[in-house]
Amino acid sequence: MNRKGHFALGKTNPVHREKNKVVIVFFFFVACFLIILGKAFYLQVFNRTNLMKYSADQIFRERIIYPNRGNIYDRNGSPLAINIQTWSIFSIPKQIKSPRRSYKRLAKIVPTLTYKKLRMVTKNRKRYTWLARKISLTKTQVKKVKKIKGIYLEPVPKRFYPNKELLSQTLGFVGLDNTGLAGVEYQFDEYLKGKAKVFKYIKDAKGRPIKYETEILKEDAKDLYLTIDKDLQDMAEKALKEAVIKFNALKGGIGVMDVQTGEVLALANYPTFNPNNIKDSKPEDRKLAFVSDPFEPGSIFKTFTVASALEHKLARPDTNYYCEKGAFEVGDHVINEAVKGKGYEWLSMSEIIKYSSNIGTTKIAFDLTFPRLRETLKNFNIGEKTGIEIPGESRGIFTAKENLGPLKLSNISFGQGVATTGIQILAAYATLANGGFYIKPTIIKKENYSPNKVRIISKKTAQEITKMLVDVVNEGTGSKARIPFFEIAGKTSTAQKPGKEGGYEGYIPGFIGYPVNVDKRFVIYVYVDGPIGKNYFGNTIAAPVFKKVAKFLIYKNKEFNNLADLGKSGDGPLPSLDKIDSGDRNLGQNEVPNFLGLDKRSSATLAQKKALKLVHLGIGVVISQSPSPKSEIGDNQTVELMYSPPKYE
Questions:
Q1: Nearest-angstrom CA–CA distance, 577 and 196
Q2: Burial class of residue 133 (count of CB atoms within 10 Å of its CB; 0-12, 13-18, 19+)
């Protein structure tokens, strides 16, 4: 109000101004309270679960620990993959007052950790830092490391393969976290690894554990038993390696399978690798090519063509085929025999297999036609995976066409234009050896295992094929697979390798076979890829490997004591001991003497006179020998003698 008693416009009463401020502040605090109340209501009602989880995360911590990985054993309980105690070392830099002194001290205790390396790893790191993973330490080293403040040890199991390279491609390997990365380690990772153990603990303000709140224990890891025989595997790998090196080849493969159960007894490729030291290995050496890499099988495929003709009753073993004297025109191409310059006129079906005739097999295939041949090959599982429990198996390459022209039919009939894996051929030949049943190969040993047997050819066909394959070894192309006192059925192959720019370059010689006159039959397939030189035939390179492995397995199992006709495998009836005339043994100076009827001591005495080396098989008296009496004695001659308990007339 001015001096004249009127209010001045535009001016506010001070009292009103103070009241307005109070009201504004009041409503501000009320609004804040309502916002906080609303937020609290939202958190408690609508976001309760997340809030409780966040709160628990601030108090509790979880630590997941897996149990020790399960061990892997062979069929007899010999360890193939185990765990050993190792240590991982880590540091918490903020707890280390004098890094220089601490790291130098650690480097002195653990020589593999240099001071320079430690400083580089921990540079600009505030939280914990791994200094070493899965290293071996002595008890003394562990005690000394634990005394360094800010440096910590964590016990960690490490996968260890005690046999180094043995079976490495089948076993595979694991990573730093013990997770399977290849082979059966990968295939059965969950089984071997088991389920995690989860530990929950309460932490203090500095993150240190106070006490464990709960412990959730889950399924432990389990051990795995394979069908592999460690001793046989070792023998097979050594024999394969020797052949690859001897013939300057690129690589090779071998598989051994029980024909009655499908159990794989040995499986390998060379070159190989040491799974304890993955960094120094090549990726191609870590692959089990016997299962994963298909190639043209060559002449061992002829057996399936013949089996198909027998099954379809289009021919008999004595059916004759004209083999064109070594050159047969099919369209614009000429089919030649497997051995250059070799030619035949008339050959029976049995002789076609014995001499491995390409032209004879082609003639059989033409009578057969592709639809029938395709049906048989599909029954033998050609073009499909066998289902063996190893990752990376290939199904091979086989045409999906219902029919083919003459040239392609000819090629497939003797193993060209089709690609198979070693395991496919091994399983297919097991069918011939067991009387006609296809059995899926397995590498996992199972209790009370009864395989699923599917008859795909008749017993008669299997027996006829087996007889033909025995002739291959005794009289044909597989002579170097012969084993004294045993009847061996087998087939050679000298497969050509497709060139990068068409055509063929190089060879893959192979041999597959099985002993016939033993109680427990097995089949062995050997191939050697890319030998250098003129000796590239299956009989020269692969058959001797088969022989070494087969002899080892036969004698290891002492099957020679269970031969059905053992007494008939020698040279005539076994003479009685009292009727043996010592004069019968006084043969020429350069002739192998007659050991029949002698015991080991007498045999040794006689051999000494002739400067002969002996191999004794069995116990008792000699019932058969190889070489036979009166054979010419060669340099460093070795004579194998088969013994059996004596029989008196």
A1: 70
A2: middle
Cα 381 to chain centroid, rounded: 20
Q: How many residues does the chain have?
A: 649
With H, G, I as helix, E, B as strand and everything else as coil, classify residue 64.
strand
The two structure tokens encoding residue 128: 């914990």
Whether 367 shows a pLDDT value over 70: the answer reads: yes
Residues of the chain with CATH 3.40.710.10: 230-561
Three-state SS for 578-593 is HHCCHHHHCCCCCECC
The topology (CATH level 3) of 230-561 is Beta-lactamase (3.40.710)
Cβ of 84: how many Cβ atoms within 10 Å? 11
Alpha carbons 632 and 627: distance in angstroms, whole number: 9
CA separation for the pair 88, 561 (Å, rounded): 55
Between CA 627 and CA 485 the distance in angstroms is: 11
How far apart are the C-alpha atoms of 609 and 115, rounded to whole Å? 71
Does residue 627 have a cis bond before it (omega within 30 degrees)? Answer: yes
For the chain, state the CA radius of gyration. Answer: 38
Joined together, the tokens standing for residue 528 give 């050697």
Q: Where in the chain is the domain with CATH 3.90.1310.10?
A: 65-225
580-to-495, 508, 596, 626 alpha-carbon distances in Å:
51, 50, 9, 19
Share of the chain above pLDDT 70, in %: 82
| β 638-644/224-225 pair status | unpaired
- Token pair, residue 332, equals 């614009």
Mean pLDDT computed over 182-210: 74
Q: Where in the chain is the domain with CATH 3.30.10.20?
A: 591-644
Mean of the per-residue pLDDT values for the chain? 85
Average pLDDT score over residue span 256-280: 96
Task: Report pLDDT for 576.
Answer: 38
Among 627, 642, 631, 640, smallest CA distance to 587 is for 631
For the stretch 454-482, pLDDT in tens is 999 999 999 999 999 999 999 999 999 99
The pair of three-digit structure tokens given for residue 246, joined into one six-digit string: 């001897």
Q: According to the model, what pLDDT value does residue 126 have?
A: 60
Residue carrying the six token digits 């062979």: 74
Cα–Cα distance for residue pair 422/267, rounded to 1 Å: 10
Is 591-644 CATH 3.30.10.20? yes
Rounded distance between C-alpha atoms, residue 636 and residue 544, angstroms: 19
DSSP E strands, 502-605: 504-515, 522-529
Q: What angle do CA 551, 552, 554 make, to 5 degrees?
A: 65
Tokens coding 370: 């592709």
Pairing outcome for strands 504-515 and 522-529: antiparallel
Residues facing 106 on adjacent strands: none
Class (C level, CATH) for 65-225: alpha beta
Handedness of CA 128, 134, 139, 144 (dihedral sign): negative
Whether the Cβ atoms of residue 496 and residue 529 lie closer than 8 Å to each other: no
